[in-house]
Design brief:
CATH superfamily: Cytochrome P460
Largest sheet: 5 strands, antiparallel
CATH topology: Chalcone isomerase
Structural class: alpha+beta
Radius of gyration: 19 Å
Strand content: 25-35%
Number of domains: 1
Order of helices and strands: HEEEHEEEEEEHH
Helix content: 10-25%
Strand order of the largest sheet: 2-3-4-5-6
Length: 197
C-alpha cells in the first residue's frame, strides 16, 4: 500500500473520529451537556417574537429574538436527503431585543442572552418519538448539563403536531424547508394554516 493511500486512510479515520466526538454528549445521569461551541455551528434562522399558542408576550413587552443553530454534520446530511439524521442537535438561543442602540435610530438589534434550549434526535435514547427537548436555564444562570423536559411537557405535543419535517419546525428555516419540499420529506399532515393550540 502506498504512503498516499495510508495517509488518506488516516485522514478519513481521524475525520470519522472527529464527527463521532461531535455527537451530543450526555452525563452518566442522562443529562445533555451544553456544547460550548454551538455558535460555530450552522446558523439556520432568526425570528423576532416567535410564540406558539398561549405563550404570547404581555402588552408592552418587547418581543425577543431567537437564533437557531444546528450541528454542521446534520445540516450537510439534511441538504442531501431532506431528513435530519440521528444525532441531530439544534440549539435555540433567545436574546433580548433592544432599540436605539449606538447609531441605530429605528428597528431593533439583539441584546443580552435570555435563554438557551436544545432539541436532540436520538431514537434509541428516546424511542417514543425520537426527539427530546431541553432547557439550560437555571436559578443560578446557565447550567452545564440538563435533563430533558418530561414527556408531558407541551413542547412534545406542539412539535409532534406542528413540525413540518418530523418533529422539527423546519418551516421556519427557509433554505432547509425548500430542500424538504423539493425532496418530498415534508410531513403529509403538515398544514401551514394550522395554529398551535
Amino acid at each position: 500500500m502506498s504512503r498516499a493511500a495510508i495517509a488518506i486512510g488516516m485522514v478519513l479515520c481521524l475525520a470519522g473520529s472527529a464527527a463521532f466526538a461531535a455527537d451530543p454528549s450526555f452525563t452518566d445521569k442522562g443529562e445533555l451537556v451544553r456544547p460550548p461551541d454551538y455558535r460555530e455551528w450552522v446558523f439556520l434562522a432568526s425570528g423576532l417574537g416567535m410564540t406558539y399558542g398561549p405563550n404570547r408576550p404581555q402588552a408592552g413587552q418587547t418581543p425577543p429574538f431567537d437564533n437557531v443553530f444546528v450541528r454542521p454534520e446534520s445540516y450537510r446530511e439534511f441538504m442531501k436527503t431532506g431528513r435530519w439524521p440521528e444525532g441531530t442537535m439544534f440549539m435555540l438561543e433567545v436574546r433580548n431585543a433592544e432599540e436605539n442602540v449606538s447609531i441605530n435610530a429605528g428597528g431593533r438589534t439583539q441584546g443580552s442572552l435570555r435563554a438557551i434550549e436544545a432539541a436532540v434526535k436520538d431514537s434509541k435514547r428516546y424511542p417514543d418519538g425520537g426527539w427530546s427537548y431541553f432547557s439550560f436555564d437555571g436559578p443560578q444562570g446557565l447550567k452545564e448539563s440538563t435533563a430533558p423536559f418530561p414527556r408531558t411537557a407541551s413542547c412534545y405535543a406542539c412539535h409532534s403536531r406542528n413540525g413540518a419535517v418530523e418533529w422539527t419546525f423546519t418551516q421556519f428555516y427557509p433554505v432547509p424547508f425548500e430542500v424538504a419540499q423539493k425532496l418530498g420529506t415534508v410531513r403529509k399532515d403538515y398544514d401551514p394554516a394550522r395554529k398551535a393550540e
